[in-house]
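Re: that backbone. Tokens:
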């Protein structure tokens, strides 16, 4: 073991060495600050207070960064959905106008309308199946699942499953009935004429909603039943111009009004008039024939369109948990009940989430105090209304040789125009407004974050960044001290006892 010297000279030498090392260390530290621009390379070099402040500020900046990432992702999603919704809104606005303009045109116009409907249907499906980064934007919480089945499968089905076209055909048959009277019957007995529903609680066909008559000779009454029945009694001979009115409710909830006007014996009986007979019984027989003809006209023109819209709306209101209802058959024209389809025999068009609050299915945290919802589901009412409207037209046909084609077409156009006007509920524009508001919130929040970030970075810079001017001065001072220390040490090394004496 070596024992070092001890004494004043030894202590001074050790102290000089330590001072030299300290100055050299300070010089290296200041030199590093000048080259890196940072006060220290570790938090320990900032001191306890500086380190705590630095960690706090960096945590806040990291949180802002995560919010920024969320906002960037949300903005991309919202922009994509907004673009798709703009297409759908244009489609919903322009399609009824196009259809209405061709109601009185020849068959080629209706053929074009069917083609346009199919193209529009395909576009709707494409928009609702939009995705980004493997996430389907209109699938709610089931964002990893394509929400809407393929267009052709939905409309036409496949070998084992019925599509929309089949369900509409079944519903049309069930509503029209075997005799084309809409599951009603018309009969005259003496001076009374009765029209009655086939059975109480029947889910198909026409429903009697009202009956009235003008003039002193005619009396109309409605019995609620079940089954409901309306009776027109010819108490005395009507005079020309007396009327009988009947209100029918169709399967889609719309109403059709029949008005029969009393005429002369030469007027004959028809859909809008009846002849006044020689007796009240004969007049009643004429009313019966006219009423049957008027009901038959409704069944041939308005009822098929109402059946198609009803079946289409029911089809698109269904999902895997609530399969679409189908007519219990065959036979379908005499069916008396509905039965739920299954995934094995009926196409289920929607496979996404089914939350009652679609926006909340994609909650985006964009600040410490704010969360916005940017979720969407293809089964929202506005989308279902569009799918039902375009689907009903896309599956129709209006043969030139069919005398009822123009009437059926006009009736369907009226219903589609009404549905795409979204009179009773959510519209595509409403959904677009939700996302527009969300986009505005994200944009403003991002601006706020940028301002806060700038303040935090300034504060962090004051703690972590070295001032170039101050650092340069410290470097010069350390260099001067270090040089002086070198010179002093070198001078002392040259001294000897002879020089000292």
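Recovered sequence:
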């Amino acid at each position: 073991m070596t024992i070092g010297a001890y004494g004043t000279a030894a202590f001074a030498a050790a102290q000089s060495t330590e001072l030299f090392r300290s100055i050299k260390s300070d010089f290296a530290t200041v030199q590093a600050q000048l080259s890196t621009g940072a006060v220290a390379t570790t938090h320990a070099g900032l001191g306890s207070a500086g380190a705590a402040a630095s960690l706090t500020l960096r945590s806040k900046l990291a949180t802002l960064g995560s919010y920024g990432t969320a906002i960037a992702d949300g903005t991309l999603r919202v922009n994509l959905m907004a673009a798709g919704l703009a297409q759908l809104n244009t489609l919903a606005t322009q399609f009824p106008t196009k259809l209405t303009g061709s109601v009185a045109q020849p068959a080629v116009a209706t053929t074009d309308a069917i083609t346009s409907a199919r193209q529009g249907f395909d576009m709707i499906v494409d928009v609702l199946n939009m995705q980004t980064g493997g996430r389907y934007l209109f699938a709610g919480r089931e964002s990893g699942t394509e929400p809407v089945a393929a267009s052709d499968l939905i409309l036409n089905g496949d070998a084992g499953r019925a599509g929309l076209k089949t369900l509409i055909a079944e519903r049309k048959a069930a509503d029209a009935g075997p005799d084309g009277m809409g599951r009603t019957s018309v009969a005259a007995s003496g001076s009374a004429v009765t029209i009655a529903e086939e059975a109480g609680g029947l889910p198909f066909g026409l429903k009697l909603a009202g009956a009235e008559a003008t003039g002193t000779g005619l009396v109309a009454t409605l019995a609620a039943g079940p089954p409901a029945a309306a009776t027109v009694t010819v108490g005395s001979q009507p005079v020309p111009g007396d009327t009988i009115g009947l209100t029918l409710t169709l399967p889609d909830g719309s109403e059709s009004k029949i008005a029969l006007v009393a005429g002369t014996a030469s007027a004959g009986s028809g859909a809008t008039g009846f002849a006044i007979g020689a007796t009240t019984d004969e007049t009643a027989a004429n009313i019966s024939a006219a009423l049957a003809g008027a009901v038959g006209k409704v069944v041939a023109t308005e009822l098929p369109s109402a059946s198609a819209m009803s079946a289409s709306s029911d089809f698109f209101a269904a999902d895997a948990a609530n399969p679409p209802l189908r007519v219990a058959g065959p036979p379908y024209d005499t069916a008396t009940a509905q039965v739920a389809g299954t995934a094995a025999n009926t196409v289920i068009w929607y496979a996404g989430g089914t939350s009652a609050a679609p926006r909340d299915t994609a909650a985006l945290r964009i600040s410490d105090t704010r969360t916005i919802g940017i979720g969407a589901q293809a089964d929202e009412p506005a989308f279902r209304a569009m799918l039902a409207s375009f689907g009903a037209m896309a599956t129709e046909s209006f043969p030139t040789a069919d005398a009822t084609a123009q009437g059926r077409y006009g009736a369907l156009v009226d219903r589609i125009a009404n549905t795409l006007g979204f009179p009773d509920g959510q519209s595509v524009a409403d959904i677009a407004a939700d996302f527009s508001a969300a986009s505005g919130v994200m944009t403003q929040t991002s601006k706020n974050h940028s301002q806060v970030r700038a303040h935090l970075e300034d504060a962090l810079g004051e703690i972590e960044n070295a001032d170039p001017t101050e650092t340069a001065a410290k470097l010069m001072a350390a260099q001067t001290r270090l040089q002086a220390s070198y010179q002093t040490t070198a001078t002392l090394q040259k001294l000897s006892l002879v020089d000292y004496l």
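Residues 8-37+466-500 form one domain. The first strand starts at residue 131 and ends at 132.
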